[in-house]
Inverse folding.
């Protein structure tokens, strides 16, 4: 860190970024679950949960391997600059395919969350798993650090 602002230090109440180990643990935990597609799309594209919940089948181009984020009847966008086209990873394309089957372009990609407060419900669903994995890992890490400090 080149510059340090007084009072800008992290506290235990701050939201800390996920470490590479956190992401690896989450990848393993979500793999093969019904929520894997949501987690993978968020991880690989960086889109917001509300954007994910409001996707339409027509927003996805498997041929171009892209996802078009734009306002629709399900949800608005946070800012005008939020409209964009995102590239899709190989894993995302594979996971999305089953959700597109037998649907028209105007239908929601994820019907369970394409409703008022659907983004909140989706976030809660994902965060149950995230909190469990990250809290357990960090708790073990803190216990290990305490043990090391007591041995010093």
């Amino acid at each position: 860190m080149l510059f340090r602002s007084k009072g800008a230090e992290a506290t235990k109440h701050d939201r800390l970024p996920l470490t590479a180990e956190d992401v690896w643990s989450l990848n393993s935990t979500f793999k093969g679950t019904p929520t894997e597609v949501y987690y993978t799309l968020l991880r690989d594209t960086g889109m917001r949960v509300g954007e994910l919940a409001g996707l339409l089948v027509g927003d996805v181009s498997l041929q171009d391997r892209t996802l078009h984020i734009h306002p629709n009847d399900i949800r608005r966008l946070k800012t005008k600059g939020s409209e964009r086209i995102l590239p899709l990873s190989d894993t995302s394309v594979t996971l999305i395919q089953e959700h597109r089957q037998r649907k028209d372009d105007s239908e929601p990609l994820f019907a369970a969350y394409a409703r008022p407060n659907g983004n909140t419900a989706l976030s809660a669903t994902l965060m149950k798993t995230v909190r469990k994995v990250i809290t357990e890992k960090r708790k073990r890490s803190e216990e290990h650090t305490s043990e090391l400090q007591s041995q010093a």
